[in-house]
Amino acid sequence: MFFKDIVGQEETKKWLVKEANGNRVAHAKLICGGEGVGTLPMAIAYARYLNCTNRQETDACGVCPSCVKFDKLVHPDVHFVFPTVKSKLSDDYIKEWRKLASGNAYFNLNLWLKELGAENQQPIIYGKESDELIKKLSLKSLEGEYKIAIVWLAEKMNPTCANKLLKLLEEPPAKTVLLLVSETPDLILQTILSRTQRINLRPISEQSIAEALEKKYGVSQANSETIAHLSNGNFVKALETIHLNEETQLFFELFVNLMRLSYQRKIREMKLWSDQVASLGRERQKNLLLYCQRLIRENFIHNFHRKELNYMTNDENHFATRFAPFVNERNVMGIMDELTEAQLHIEQNVNAKMVFFDFSLKMIVLLKQ
Question: Do 27 and 145 share a domain, yes or no?
């Protein structure tokens, strides 16, 4: 990952290059922003530039020994920490991480869990991870000018890990750079936030996403502009739209079926629908509920006939032409409240069949309002 591979974020790239060349490198940075804006790609590109032995004016050279190792993320002075499962260390999954991140650093937690085959588990950065990181950073650098640690989704650190990391931030070894990457920085300890230099990445402009889709993926201009609008500044979402994400298509079909069954009051079929959703696993169930919240919101906005404010695919928009009138001022808040409550219950491991059947029954009443 080079700076040139990052979609948009030109100001931040220029600032990081200027900082590196001016020898004003802060020992700890917090690179934060929403999903798909390029926080991890920015951290990797910055780490590559710092240790490049032949830096160019705007990017790493790509041919020096350091850059060659970065192509496969095997540089001995760059360490990665990320959420794992089963109380394992990041090093236990480093092969899977390198395979995913070196191919395309624009991915989210769901894609990472899918790579691990752990969609139904809760990912955490465990306490012993900090101990390992402290050991690694206490050693002398082997090849690069800097020893660098990139912590992806730092908000996933458990309290033990976060407190141990705080000691490293207070007394960092010489020529050490710690790059924390976060989508929800408010969940990180305030004492850690106060000891890092914060960089906020904004949602990517539609123009930048459209241009990247055309140049890198050969998408036509018309389609790239449509996808860029739907992605709402999230390049991960744009890529999912290109590849016709099977999970999103499944969620759309489940949403349509539930709304039709609830409106028609087909209780037996609704029960079968609940059983089907209960078999998906906890993480996919939560993702389904988030998808349903988005589609309810989009259908409500659809009633105002402001196309520029809607972010739906062609299939979703076609369904909204008939369904949107049933989502109105009288019931939209009630539906959203029920979806939020169902999500909370799923996170608390309440029986999924009961949660989704109960929600489907409530939809019978809400859709009639």
Answer: yes
User: The domain that contains 290 carries what CATH number?
Assistant: 1.20.272
pTM: 0.71
Distance CA 281, CA 29 (A): 36
Give the pLDDT confidence of 166-224 residue by residue, as tens digits: 888 888 888 899 999 999 999 999 999 999 999 999 999 999 999 999 888 888 887 78
Instruction: HSE, CB side, 13 Å, CA atoms: give it for residue 235.
Output: 30
Q: What angle do CA 226, 307, 233 make, to 5 degrees?
A: 45
Q: Whole-angstrom Cα distance, residue 357 to residue 246?
A: 24
Report the number of distinct structural domains present in the chain: 3
User: How many Å separate Cα 317 from the centre of its chain?
Assistant: 25
Q: Decide: helix, strand or coil at residue 196.
A: coil
At residue 29, φ and ψ (nearest 5 deg) are -125, 145
- In order, the DSSP letters of 333-351 are HHHHHHHHHHHHHHHTT--
Segment 114-162, tens digit of pLDDT: 888 877 788 999 999 999 998 898 888 788 788 999 999 999 999 999 9
CA distance 214 to 153: 29
Q: Rounded to whole angstroms, what are the CA distances from 317 to 245, 253, 298, 299?
A: 17, 13, 9, 8
User: Could you tell me the two tokens for 73?
Assistant: 């993320």
Asked whether 200 and 32 are in contact (CB, 8 A), the reply is: yes
Q: Do residues 130 and 165 lie in contact, with contact meaning Cβ atoms separated by under 8 Å?
A: yes
